[in-house]
Every structure is written in C-alpha cells, then in structure tokens.
Amino acid sequence: MIAANAAGEINDAELHNLLIFLFAAGYDTSKNMLTLIMHMMLQHPEPDDYVIATGETHTVREFCELAFSELGLDYREHVEIDPNLYRPAEVDTLIGDASKARKVLNWTTTRTFRDLVRDMVRSDLRLLETKHSTDPVTTAV
User: Fold this and answer.
1) Structural domains in the chain, sorted by start
2) Tell me: the pLDDT tens digits for 55-84?
3) What is the reported pTM?
4) Distance between CA 86 and CA 83 in Å, rounded?
5) Fewer CB within 10 A of the terminal residue: the chain, N end or C end?
6) Do residues 29 and 102 touch, judged by C-beta distance below 8 A?
C-alpha cells in the first residue's frame, strides 16, 4: 500500500488511530523461521506449548514512520487520520512473552521490526516493478 501510494497508484492512506499497537506475535516468522521453530519444538523430549514472540510492541505510527521513510517520504504527508474511526475501547498493550521458548528451546528472534518493515516495502516495490514491466498499458507509454 505504501509503495503504491508513493508510485501514485492509490490516494493517501486513511488510518483510524496511529497510537494503537501492532500485535506481532513475532515478526521473525518467515516460512523458514517457522519451520525451524516447529522443528525445535518437535525435537524437544516433552511436548509443551510455547509462545513465539519478540517481546516488543510497536504502534501503527512507528510502522508508518519506518515504511514511508524507506521511500524517503514523511508519513504525515500521506496518511489521513480519521478520528471518527477510533475505537472506543482499545486494548492498552499486547506483548507476547517468549521467555519459555528462549529458556527451554534456546530460541531467540533474529530480525528487527525495522528489518520487517523494510522487507515489506521492498517486496511491494518489486511487485510494482513487475506489474509495470508486464502491463501493456504502462510499458507502451
């Protein structure tokens, strides 16, 4: 969405509350990492439940700041906040506690929130480039 906005393909984003928290059970959850985590759990001699999380929390505002800055933009020039969309009761903070997975499985996160946001924006840019390189309307111009 942010890459498409920067490319002029969509209008500015409309978000309801930049202060809400993103609940990322773990943003280190790429397909390969999930496979590794599941393998670690299955190799443990006793079955158990684990929370896989970063132990961090980030706001939508932080996400917007990082994502737009990845494109050299200021999110405040592209995001419209509609107070009518605020939820009357928001959960204060949600943070996953992966201490058991760290202790028992010796698991730790390997990526940062900034890494995740950067990768998401770059992925969107690649998709846009692919779309434009295969779209007869945009390639004819």
Assistant:
1) 2-140 (3.90.25.10)
2) 888 888 898 999 999 999 999 988 888 777
3) 0.66
4) 5
5) C
6) no
